[in-house]
TrEMBL record:
<protein>
    <submittedName>
        <fullName>Metallo-beta-lactamase family protein RNA-specific</fullName>
    </submittedName>
</protein>
<dbReference type="Pfam" id="PF00753">
    <property type="entry name" value="Lactamase_B"/>
</dbReference>
<feature type="domain" description="Metallo-beta-lactamase">
    <location>
        <begin position="2"/>
        <end position="50"/>
    </location>
</feature>
<dbReference type="InterPro" id="IPR050698">
    <property type="entry name" value="MBL"/>
</dbReference>
<dbReference type="GO" id="GO:0004521">
    <property type="term" value="F:RNA endonuclease activity"/>
</dbReference>
<dbReference type="InterPro" id="IPR036866">
    <property type="entry name" value="RibonucZ/Hydroxyglut_hydro"/>
</dbReference>
<dbReference type="InterPro" id="IPR001279">
    <property type="entry name" value="Metallo-B-lactamas"/>
</dbReference>
Amino acid sequence: MRALVLTHAHIDHIGRLLWLFAAGFRGPIYCTQATAHLVPLMLEDGLKLQLNLNSAARGRILELITQYLRPVRYHEWVPVKDIGHGYFT
């Protein structure tokens, strides 16, 4: 897997990001600007409640994931390497 496209920030769509990064994924994550804003907030709850990580550990993980988010404006075509183009609505 070289890239991800997140359609929205519901936990059933973003919840596996933590495990993908733990397994070594380091590709771009394309999503709307709103989703990019919500992803760290949603994942922080999971890190705190499910994994019982302290604030510093949560911060490091969220910082790592956040650096791979590629926010895209609505109605924008984006070239995705090796895939073609994606249109965000």
